Structure formats: structure tokens, C-alpha cells
Amino acid sequence: MCIMSKTRSLFTWMVCLLVVTYQAQALPQEVQCTITVAEPTTCYIATPIYLLPGYTLSIVNSSELVNVTRFELRAMTNLDHIPPIIWAVFPNLQEIVMANYASVATLTATDLLYASNLKLLNLKGNKLTTIPYSAFALAKSLEELDLSGNLIATIDSMAFNGLSNLKRLDLSFNRLALIDAFTFYGLPNLLMLDLNHNKIKTIGDGTFNLPKLQILNCNYNDVKLLPDHLFGLLPKQSPPLTYVDFGENKLTHIGASLYSLNELKFLNLTSNKKIDDINLEALAQLPKLEILLLTNSGFKFPTPISALTVTPPEAAASIPMPTSNSPLRELYIGKNKLANPDVLRQLAYFRQLEVLSLEENQFTIIEYINSLPTWFPNLRTIYLGENKLNCAWLNDSIPVFQAANIQVYSIKKVKTWYGTSYQQKLIDMDDCVDLAKIFSTILSWLNKFSVAAN
Length: 454
Description:
Strand order of the largest sheet: 2-4-5-6-8-10-12-14-15-16-17-18-19-20-21-22
Radius of gyration: 31 Å
Number of helices: 7
Order of helices and strands: HEEEEHEEEEEEEEEEEEHEEHEHEHEEH
């Protein structure tokens, strides 16, 4: 009994010692602000901080902190809000970076009470779940806001109201499911909006009625429909978007909204699989569109194309071409189960093409290859692999491609120990299907089987 009692006493003492030691290490009430010659205006904290409930961060003050404009965490902390001490210690503060090393879970206007000069706020990789109404109303000078990698599922209406100078807003890798016209209300100078890797299903009319928006990234979401007035009620209200990415969604309908973006240079609709209203003719009217990605989008050519159909094939040179000044340079329409050999005429809206991807469709032949230099004088690269190309056609076409200085590629899949990699190679006779040989082989086997049966 005595032995057990002494053992328990010793164990209790050891536990207490551990707790006391841990708490002694865990309560640095004051931390040293590190400033280097290389970063004379940056205060960074490189010491791990763990504050128990009721304790607050305290920074060792000195005269050199007056010139600090940037506060940054570079070590793990359990800070759950923006520490109020920084507004007193750094009177000229313009940037706060608490990315990945903190646990900020709430954000209200009072946290930014003295943030009138703040231009950059980076809270990437924290634990925010909600952005409340007018959370940034007192940070009127803010130009860049990074809230990516949090747990944000809800943004209150007009949460960003008052940020009239904001240019970049990153909300990627969160849990948003719904956005509407009031989500981004009050952002007249926003240039870039990143919403990729959320769970967005519904986007309301007028959501992106942002007069200066240039870059919109909304890939890897669950969006099914783009409303007709996504960018505003009137075409003239459309923002000067140059880059729009709705790849990896579940779109079936893109409406008329995209066709009003007269400054658009890049459009990605890849991997939506079932879009039913892609209008190439309307896209060809966009005066600045240079890159169009429709891979695995469910894209189909409209049929019939009576206005473009001319026979016989040898009269191809006299075929009337669509009137279009489209500057499109790169078009990707692979993985769409396309099979119509008349594909080149159907793409004649895009006379300036340099790169054309027809990879992984169901083509056996492609007509009017001899007309390529005339119809597409700038075309230099075609991807044709993973189709059902006829060997006789491919054998006759390769010299034509070479004479026109067009490189025809196949994407070769290579299995390695770490997965599948992809290599680009020039197409050759290994990339075709010799149907005559296959039928001959089948008939030979049938004849042998018939003889054996008799």
C-alpha cells in the first residue's frame, strides 16, 4: 500500500511538473518583433505562440517600430483574432499577413477599428466560417484581401460594402454554396475575383455586376446554370472581363451572358460534360477572344449547316466561308465524341487559328485537308490522337500536313510507378485503325472456323 501511495504521489508530482513547465513555456506575454536590414519595414514573429484563454499578445515596443508598415506571422500561433495591440504599436501599418500560422475564427468591424490605412489583409488558411455584414467597413483603403483556405460557408449580404478601393479578392478553397447580387455589393474597383474550389451551386442574376472586373476564376464548383444577366441587366453594363474560368463545374446552360463580354480573351468551359447551348457563331463575334477551352464540355456542332454545305468535295476552294473577324488563336474541343468529318468547315469562323485540339473524339477521317493553308493560314499545331483515324486517310494526310508546315500531335499516355503521365509526340501510323486489315483478319478467322466445323 505504501509503495502504491508513493508511486501515485510521484506520478502526480511529475504530471504537475509537466503542466507547470508547459505553461511556463506557453505564456510568452511579450514577443520580440524581428526586423532585418533586408526587410526594414516588416515586423515578423518567428517564435511559436500559444496563449491560454484570457491572455493577449504583447509586442516589445521600440522606436524602430514606428516605421513598420507590414506585420507578419512566420510561426504557429493560436491567435483567434487580429490582435488589438498591433494598432497601437504600428501607427503606420498597411499590411497584415496572418496566413496559415493562426486560427482566426471571427472577423468583425471592431477588429479593424483602426485599419483606415490598411491596404493588404491576408487571412489565408485560418478558421473563418462566416463573413458578417459590413465586416470591412472601417478598412476603406484595403486593396487586396485574401480569405482563401478557410471554412467560409456564408457571406452576409453587403459583407464587403465600403471597400471602394479593393482590387483583389480571393475566396478560393472555402465552402460557399450560394452567391448573389448582394454578395459582392460595394466593390466598384474590383479587378480580380477568385472563387475556385468552393461548393457553389447557385449564382444569382447580377452577381458579377462589377464595373471593373477583369479576372473571374470560378472553376471546381457545382454550378449548373449561368443566368442570362450574370454580369448586369444590360449588355453595356458588362465588366471588362479578359479572363473567365468556369471549368470543372456541372454546367448545362451558359445563357447569353458570356456572349456580351467584348473584352474577353480567355474562356474555359472544360469538363462540364453536358452544356447544351454553346454557340460558336456567337463566340466568334467576340472581338478579342484568343483562347477557348471546350474540352469534355458536351459540345456538339449544330446540324445541319446548310449555309456551308457545298458539293462536290473537289469544289472546296470555292466554298463560301463564314464572315468573321475572330482573333481566336487556340481552340480545344477534345473529348466531345465529335465524328463529323466536315469539322474544318464548321470551324471556319476562326480563320486565325494557330492551335486546334481534336484529341479523343471519334473521327475516322477529316475532310478538306488540302484546304488548310487557305482556310487557316496561321495553323501550326493540331492534336488528333485517341481518335479512330483511318490508316489510309492518315497515310495520305501526313504529307499534306508536312507541306503546310503543320505539326500533328498525339498525347501518349505512359503508366509509371507513380501514376499516369502524358507525353506529346508527332502522330504516326501507330495512331490509326486499319479497318480493312481488321475485317480481313475477322473474315480469315471465320473461314478457318467454318472449315474446322465442317
